[in-house]
Design brief:
This protein is an alpha/beta fold. About 35% of the residues lie in helices and about 15% in strands. It is globular. Bound molecules: (2R)-2,3-dihydroxypropanoic acid (DGY). This is Dihydrofolate reductase.
């Protein structure tokens, strides 16, 4: 008999096929976000669960989770939707998918940098809505990216991949990280030992830190005040690292030129004011959304579950 695997969302075809070969699947027919109770229902007779970003895997979930479910593997590197303390207390292993979404996410950070700087949302809307009247010297002038200063908060794999790409734009890159990296991982970037020291150097700022009690709400009015006037912020990390009200106020006042956002607090129910601002470039959490990367994430999640169900060490767990 195959082990039973509860899966909360549809998976890429190749991943679902592999899951079906090894497991007896419990999954929904549609692709809607499930409530805690609906997920628990799928887990009723399961040996393992495969969950996704945004699923409510909180303390109440672990309290009600059948003892047989010894692993919850998330289809993500981020684990902020999971109460890790509660999982540990119940002895449930949490698997994640580090390493395979670095390039896709760095590419999206760059799409945000370019899209925000070059007013891509406004331009695209004109073409789509047939409101583009003519070529004119003053039409939708944006901000030059090449040769500017880029700051990176969080120089892990993704931050490094963003820094590497910045070399192609002749940028002067600065970063803050809990520790300074060896030279070969800095890609020519200058290290700052505090965020306060970094911020004045950031004409562009790209966020790559996890959501933790220390970083939640970090991008607030005080933080923004330390950036050069007219700076551009992009976020591919987690939405709640930003204080939405403060960011929106800075975008309205002109303190910030623009923001590129792929992640939002409370997504998909984002702060509506973002939609009304012309100087935001907004994406629906697409950082890892390439076929190659989503397949690799799914296979990594299944590797974690395979190891657990075969009594081996889970390769990627937190
Ligand atoms: C993750 O894996 O945490 C990403 O946010 C998904 O794109």
């Amino acid at each position: 008999m195959k082990p039973v695997l509860a899966i909360t969302r549809r998976l890429p075809d190749a991943v679902e096929k592999r899951a079906r070969e090894s497991y007896d699947l419990r999954m929904q027919d549609g692709d809607e976000p499930l409530s805690r109770d609906q997920i628990l229902d799928l887990c009723k007779d399961a040996d393992a669960a495969l969950v996704s970003v945004g699923d409510p895997i909180d303390a109440a979930f672990f309290d009600a989770l059948p003892k047989k479910v010894g692993i919850v593997a998330t289809f993500s590197v981020g684990t902020d939707h999971i109460d890790l303390g509660a999982a540990k207390a119940k002895g449930v292993i949490i698997g994640n998918t580090p390493g395979v979404l670095t390039d896709a996410t760095a590419d999206i950070a760059w799409l945000l940098i370019l899209g925000a700087a070059r007013r891509a949302s406004e331009g695209e809307a004109e073409v789509r809505n047939a409101t583009w009247s003519s070529w004119r010297p003053t039409h939708l002038m944006g901000t030059q990216v090449t040769g500017k200063k880029l700051g990176i908060i969080g120089m892990g794999r993704i931050g490094q991949a963003v820094a590497k790409r910045a070399r192609g734009f002749d940028m002067d890159v600065h970063y803050f990280n809990r520790r300074q990296l060896p030279k070969d991982q800095e890609f020519g970037a200058t290290y700052h030992s505090s965020i306060d020291e970094l911020l004045p150097h950031c004409q562009f700022l790209s966020l790559h830190c996890p959501s933790t009690p220390e970083t939640r709400g970090m991008v607030n009015t005080d933080f923004i005040a330390k950036l050069p006037n007219g700076a551009i912020i992009v976020n591919t990390a987690r939405g709640d690292v930003v204080n939405d009200g403060d960011l929106i106020a800075a975008l309205k006042s002109g303190k910030l030129t623009a923001a590129g956002l792929d992640v939002f607090a409370g997504e998909p129910n984002i702060e509506p004011a973002y939609r009304d601002l012309p100087n935001t470039f907004l994406l629906p959490h697409l950082g890892s959304a390439t076929v190659e990367t989503r397949n690799a994430m799914g296979f990594r999640a299944l590797d974690n579950i395979d190891a657990f169900t075969q009594g081996k060490d889970v390769p990627f767990c937190v």
